[in-house]
Amino acid sequence: MTNSLSTDRLSSSYVLITAAYNEEACIDGTIRAVLSQTLQPERWVIVSDGSADGTDEIVRSYTEEHSFIRLVRRERDGSQGFASKVFALHTGLERLNGVAYDFIGHLDADITFAPSYFFELLRVFGEHPLLGLSGGTLLERTQGSFVRRGTGTLTSVPGAVQMFRRACYEDIGGFIPIPYGGEDWYAEVAARMKGWQVLSAPDIVAYHQRSTGEATGRLRYLFRQGFMDYALGSHPLFEAVKLLGRISERPFVMGATARWIGFVVAHLTTDRAVSKEFMNFLRSEQMRRLVSHF
């Protein structure tokens, strides 16, 4: 593992990769947010993952004036499903050859933040030498206002804003393609398994301009989440307790049920996407959380 970096080196040592699919409604805001940063990336590779709208034209209009932004066009393979995003990120990573950097961020194409976002985030890394993965707190647009996404745990970082120390990223081998998604969850568990710290930064805020699952339909999205949980090796007991906790809240009854059905169907029809070592590590974490909860 590497030692923490000095503040002056942090000012120019990060790169970004964005996988964008039909993001013409939001990507302009994301680009403007990055351009407003007090510390801008050495390189930002935006991979248009088979976009059929105006995404490419919007990005291209910025590349003419800002040389650190690079647009890459990738044609989607329909057989790759939700893993297509990971293959797009791999394409972006290839375009970073020859660029010097100490941190690498995966940034979704529908995220905005304040001009100090990356300066503050890299300062957090500088203060914690063993921090391998971090990111800002994600607020999600819901019915016209922004609300905190998920449980708000400090040991989990949303994939939309994950920033890695380069040594950690290389330790875990980057993202792996998972047919049902969950590559961000895999990355944070793999980082801890390799001995790195994973912490979100609660005082650094990013804004998700679209609700999670909006593009595919909420129940369908949650059904797929059940497949994802199974593919990554989630313990059935942990899964049941987690979903029972949510089903007691009336608005989440159908969603929790859909996710549990997805988990059960996956058990009958699909294989794990991870190694036994990974699954055992994840389950040991989950069991410790259950014990501490009760």
Question: What would your notes on this structure say?
Answer:
- With 294 residues, this protein is α/β, with parallel strands linked by helices.
- It has 2 domains: 7-208, Spore Coat Polysaccharide Biosynthesis Protein SpsA, Chain A (Alpha-Beta Complex), CATH 3.90.550.10; 218-288, no CATH class.
- The chain has 11 helices and 9 strands.
- The chain has helices at residues 7-10, 27-35, 55-63, 84-94, 117-127, 166-172, 183-193, 218-231, 236-247, 253-269, 276-293, and strands at residues 14-20, 43-49, 69-74, 103-106, 111-113, 131-142, 145-148, 163-165, 197-208.
- Strands 1, 2, 3, 4, 5, 6, 7, 8 and 9 form a 9-stranded mixed sheet that branches.
- Strand 1 (14-20), helix 2 (27-35) and strand 2 (43-49) form a beta-alpha-beta unit.
- Helix 8 crosses helix 10 and helix 9 packs antiparallel against helix 10.
- It is globular and about 55 Å long.
